[in-house]
């Protein structure tokens, strides 16, 4: 004898509508509770523990950004490399560099080939739904540098001053814009950034606008808020922050990274690393 299975709809019709509604509401509440237990925090912690169990951070890099990231005789080298190794040492981890190129950073993170990506990387606001960024570790934006004895502290101080900039450079374009905005400011053409700085130091101009890396080489601090003991004064004209990219699921790893980076900023380690890579090179 063939027995037909009860029809679900027919079974539901046997119960009052109110009881069906209560049952459905209860089921939805249970589903919501189970979903809340699988929190992003727990997932992020599990991913961080997986990195710790592996014993190393897989770092996606672009090795063509000297002096931040490049290949030397000992492998991955540069400011970013030394920063990452010191930070990883404090975390009890090793570093494995994976060359993926700047354009491949995000794909490598999504595919799980790397845990993070860094090499002169600027945060992309359009990607914040899928990726997390660390706190900045250096600002490479344009600087206005001037003699410490007669400092130019902000744009307003450029009124009636001479500013040198390398012809055709980003600093030159900024100087041209300022020349139209700031009363009586004059722009002095320089052959290159070294010449612009030389004109400022020789007193032929009151200030020079140079790139962030060149300013760091001259002794400017990594960030505007860091104190500076030097013959020159620096202020950031256009900020350009370098950060590290992680998956959006790696909130715990970002928290650890940021905390350790903060330690390195506070105890002066980051500035000492910068001095080795920018001053005198």
Describe this structure in words.
With 281 residues, the chain is of the alpha/beta class. 41% of the residues lie in helices and 23% in strands. The chain is built from 10 helices and 14 strands. The chain has helices spanning 8-13, 17-37, 40-54, 79-91, 105-111, 170-181, 193-201, 212-218, 251-266, 269-278; strands spanning 56-61, 64-65, 69-72, 75-77, 94-99, 116-121, 131-133, 138-139, 142-147, 162-166, 186-190, 207-210, 232-238, 241-247. Strands 1, 5, 6, 7, 8 and 14 form a 6-stranded mixed sheet that branches. Strands 11-10-12-9-13 form a 5-stranded mixed sheet, with helices on both faces. The protein has a 3-stranded antiparallel sheet with strand order 2-3-4. A hairpin with a 3-residue loop joins strand 2 (64-65) and strand 3. Helix 8 (212-218) crosses helix 10 (269-278). The longest helix has 21 residues, at 17-37. It is elongated and about 60 Å long. Mean pLDDT is 87; it is low at 1-6 and 17-40.
Strands, helices and their partners?
Elements: H1 8-13, H2 17-37, H3 40-54, E1 56-61, E2 64-65, E3 69-72, E4 75-77, H4 79-91, E5 94-99, H5 105-111, E6 116-121, E7 131-133, E8 138-139, E9 142-147, E10 162-166, H6 170-181, E11 186-190, H7 193-201, E12 207-210, H8 212-218, E13 232-238, E14 241-247, H9 251-266, H10 269-278
Parallel strand pairs: 1-5, 1-6, 10-11, 10-12
Antiparallel strand pairs: 2-3, 3-4, 6-14, 7-14, 8-14, 9-12, 9-13
Helix pairs in contact: 8-10
